[in-house]
Amino acid sequence: MSTGYEREFLLRSKDVDLFRRLRLSRLFELLQEAAITHTEELGMGREKTLDRGLLWVVTMQSAEIARMPEYDEGIILRSWPGETMHVFFPRQYSISTPQGETLVRANALWMLVDQQTRRMVFPDRWGIAIPGEKREDELALPSAPARLPITDERSFPVPFSYVDLNGHMNNTRYFDLMEDCVPAAAAGRRLRIIRTEYTGEARLGDVLALRWGEGEAGRYYLEGSLEKPCFRMAMEYEV
User: 47, 136, 216, 238: least CB-packed within 10 angstroms?
Assistant: First the structure.
């Protein structure tokens, strides 16, 4: 039996960038919202987690983009959970046209942390379980981003508008940060692959030390840290 989620969207002006393509951060917002909504539909909503002091967080995510959907285009977003791996909840996503053209495939690893201690919790001890499934068209689970030589750096104070209900910079805002640093985005080059790993959290007023660099064949790398690393991203753009 399928445990999947499906929703149709029509992309409006708030969803796209100056090239009229779906903004990268908005893409991951849609994926995040699908995961949250579907988790609630599966009976694991806030009364099982947030109201008990547990937070859902993303630890890794990745996407392969055949074509980014564009302004005024209708899309179908599908999502389904994979089999739980001890403390990790894999989630798969796909975005396609109504005609069946696959535009984006993506996935993420979610986990639960204690709101007070910010430490990982074991879901079975809290009675939290999500049935999973495997489909032939899904991506392999996310892997750690490959590092490239660093050529540029800057600092970034975390503003109020970037902080979510978990009390830290929302994972989707790191994509806005990346596109402000990496020149390929503003040049209009098309993103093909992105991999992200979150190893820490940045809170309101924290000043991230950002470092990035460019490799061959349209590859880029970005990392951010406080006293310890917070995140890493590896991107591949069209050449």
Answer: 136
